[in-house]
Design goal:
Belongs to the LysR transcriptional regulatory family. Keywords: DNA-binding, Transcription, Transcription regulation. This is LysR family transcriptional regulator. With about 300 residues, the chain is of the alpha/beta class. It folds into 3 domains: about 5-90, Arc Repressor Mutant, subunit A; about 95-165 and about 265-300, Periplasmic binding protein-like II (D-Maltodextrin-Binding Protein, domain 2, 3-Layer(aba) Sandwich); about 165-260, D-Maltodextrin-Binding Protein, domain 2, CATH 3.40.190.10. Helices cover about 40% and strands about 20% of the residues. It has helices at about 10-25, 25-35, 35-50, 65-90, 105-120, 185, 200-205, 225-230, 240-250, 280-290, 300; strands spanning about 55-60, 60-65, 100-105, 125-130, 145-150, 160-165, 165-170, 195, 220, 235-240, 255, 260, 265-270. The strands form 4 sheets. A 5-stranded mixed β-sheet has the order 4-3-5-13-6. Strands 7, 10, 11 and 12 form a 4-stranded antiparallel β-sheet that branches.
């Protein structure tokens, strides 16, 4: 239920208030909004009168926002952003059915994107928008309907659909090693690490029955930048097999060791608990079918290998 109209200020008042609070000056806000100073001041008085709460302290050198006004300004700003996003989604897909997905870059492009092309053919009424997020977030504070998550089922307050496993491969620049090395030999080389998987190398060495404690090295936030650093000779990278094979085929990287291992985590589609929007329900059911016809649901199958 929408609140009574007396609690819903006009858009002009809210825009004026948000701009003054953010910019710290009615004069600057007036310039941004292409209004006169008196028009902005009038909107602020109307807003305070409607709310019955002072939002500013009038001081000798201007106005200062009250603590309550600061909290209200943040709520107004969030609402304006939400309205702006809703308007953009409507313009992008006038027929409705738009979804916003937060993706992990490498997996999103190699596993999800090819499938979304098929999904678009089956459901042209639904537009799927993709943005990158590298870590879990609060759905009620971000403009996303669902997200791709790698790891364990440790994202609280969400539903899970397992999408894929992952195998990882140690790779390096062609000139760094004369050929695939033993796990013990890799301990003497610089190892490149992914920020979101700080124990990735320890898990790989453990799978090779090789003790490796306190490993250090360069940190990267994405596989793509880590692969580029490996190609430039900065060290040995542990990459998903689909990326490693593509780079090896291009002669930019070679295997640093023969063994590859299955990563400890899984890729999941996650979305907030509760009843999802109809468009999201369609996507979830469609992905469930895709995963069910590929029991291994691994990336090799996705890439046609």
């Amino acid at each position: 239920m929408i609140a009574p109209r007396r609690f819903l200020p006009s858009m002009s008042s809210l825009l004026a208030f948000e701009a003054v609070e953010r910019l710290g000056s009615a004069t600057t806000a007036a310039e941004e909004l292409s209004l006169t100073h008196s028009a902005v001041s009038r909107q602020l008085k109307v807003l305070e009168g409607q709310l019955g709460v002072p939002l500013f302290r009038r001081e000798r050198h201007g106005m200062a926002v009250t603590p309550a006004g600061q909290d209200y300004a943040q709520a107004v700003r969030d609402s304006l952003r939400g309205l702006s996003r809703a308007s953009l989604k409507l313009r992008a897909n006038p027929s409705g059915g738009s979804l916003n997905l937060a993706i992990l870059p490498a997996f999103g492009m190699h596993w999800l994107a090819p499938r979304l092309r098929a999904f678009a053919g089956d459901h042209p009424e639904i537009t799927v928008n993709l943005s990158t997020r590298l870590a879990p977030f609060e759905f009620d504070r971000e403009p996303f309907d669902a997200a791709i998550h790698f790891g364990q089922r440790d994202w609280h307050g969400v539903n899970y659909l397992e999408l894929s496993r992952e195998r990882v491969v140690p790779v390096c620049a062609p000139g760094l090693l004369p050929g695939p090395a033993t796990p013990e030999a890799l301990l003497d080389l610089p190892l490149l690490h992914l920020e979101s998987r700080p124990s990735g190398w320890e898990e790989w060495f453990a799978a090779q029955d090789t003790r490796a404690d306190g490993l250090r090295g360069m940190l990267f936030d994405q596989f793509a930048t880590m692969a580029e650093a490996a190609a430039l000779g900065f060290g040995v990278a542990l990459l998903p097999d689909y990326m490693a094979r593509a780079e090896i085929a291009r002669n930019r990287l070679v295997r640093a060791a023969e063994a590859d291992t299955e990563a400890a985590g899984r890729y999941y589609l996650v979305w907030p608990q509760g009843t999802p929007r109809p468009a999201l329900q369609v996507l979830v059911k469609w992905l469930e079918i895709q995963v069910s016809v590929d029991p291994g649901h691994d990336l090799d199958a996705a890439a046609g290998r």
